[in-house]
Amino acid sequence: MNISAKNIVNLSNKIEKEYLKKFGDNSLDRVVRVIYEPGVNEKEFFEDLNKLKNSVASGVQLEQIEEKDWKKIIF
Questions:
Q1: Taking the mean position of all CA atoms in its chain, how far away is CA 11?
Q2: pLDDT attached to residue 2
Q3: Rounded distance, CA 28 to CA 65, Å?
């Protein structure tokens, strides 16, 4: 796929905003997303965005990690 970095960022921001509008401002706080991992490839990036798009379309929110478990994760 031939898409500029600026367009990728714009697309990602648009999809995230749609998700947050549907499920709430904190709905992605404890969701593990590969797009923030170093070395993520294009396929993984778009799979991650598609998960958000599909979640919005289906009305089923992505599962968040429980706060007590989230605090144990080292980033």
A1: 11
A2: 59
A3: 10
